[in-house]
Amino acid sequence: METTVSGISNKMKCPKCGAEMNFHAQKITYGIGSSAGGDTETAGGTLQEFHACPKCGAVASRLVAA
Amino acid sequence: MSEHVARLLTSEIEKRSGVETELIDIAKMQLSTSDAGEAIKQPEFAGKMERADAIVIVSPEYNHGYSGLLKHVLDSCLKEYIHKAVGIVGVSAGPFGGSRVIQNLLPVMRELGLVTIFWDVNFSSVHGVFSPEGALLDASYVRRIDKFLKELIWMAKTLRCGREQITID
């Protein structure tokens, strides 16, 4: 999965059609690799961005590095 | 009996112009049980969820809850659901029309990033609602489904516009 640095705006390219995607959501997710009680903001989870393609409707996500 | 309900919903959705739909029977998916979550993502199912603007979940109620299979399937995707509309149809043999399973699904929908609508459809005493062949015996359900679908489609269109046009920051 792609990773971006928090606060830096760089548009994702659609993996299907290459168009610039729209960044429409952020979410904390928990899974293998999450550390209990780690980062205060994410409560040990990882922050993901979610993007949608205005051309073809494809979706993509990437991790946000602290 | 939930299959009859799912087929009825599918046929009512298919009547609407500009809307494509597909009935997915999760019992036929043969999803791996050796792991859970996105680790067992099935490309075919994930592709359908990615293409969808909205999902209708038809769920029977078992002991006030949903089936483990439904949760197992839902957990296999995430990015495919974010900011998409979901409507829930409860099915029960008793008088409450799956209202408890709907309530129990709501926090799961929220955590998956799906946006719930405020209309549900409740099939109470479902054995009396369909003939053994699956014909609907109570036409009032069609009116209830109409209200449910109007709200769902409005939400799906609105969220699609938001996903594609409105940036979070």
How would you describe this structure to a colleague?
The complex is a heterodimer of chains A (66) and B (169). Chain A has 66 residues and is mainly beta. Chain A is built from no helices and 4 strands. Chain A has strands at 3-5, 22-29, 46-52, 59-65. A 4-stranded mixed beta sheet of chain A has the order 1-4-3-2, with no helix packed on it. The radius of gyration of chain A is 13 Å and the shape is elongated. Chain B is α/β, with parallel strands linked by helices. Helices cover 40% and strands 12% of the residues of chain B. Chain B is built from 5 helices and 4 strands, in the order ααβαβαββα. The longest helix of chain B is centred in the C-terminal third of the chain and has 26 residues, at 140-165. The termini of chain B are far apart. The mean pLDDT of chain B is 97. The chains are: A mainly beta (66), B alpha/beta (169). Chains A and B meet through β2, β3 and β4 of A and α5 of B.
List low-pLDDT spans of chain B.
Answer: none
What is the strand arrangement across the widest sheet of chain A?
Answer: 1-4-3-2
Contiguous runs where pLDDT drops below 50 for at least 5 residues of chain A: none
Number of strands of chain B: 4
Helix/strand/pairing category of chain A: mainly beta
> What is the alpha-carbon Rg of chain A in Å?
13 Å
User: What gyration radius of chain B follows from the Cα positions, in whole Å?
Assistant: 16 Å
Strand content of chain B: 5-15%
In percent, how helical is the residue content of chain A?
Answer: under 10%
Map the helices and strands:
The complex is a heterodimer of chains A (66) and B (169).
Chain A: E1 3-5, E2 22-29, E3 46-52, E4 59-65
Parallel strand pairs in A: 1-4
Antiparallel strand pairs in A: 2-3, 3-4
Chain B: H1 2-14, H2 43-51, E1 54-60, H3 68-74, E2 84-91, H4 99-111, E3 114-116, E4 121-123, H5 140-165
Parallel strand pairs in B: 1-2, 2-3, 2-4
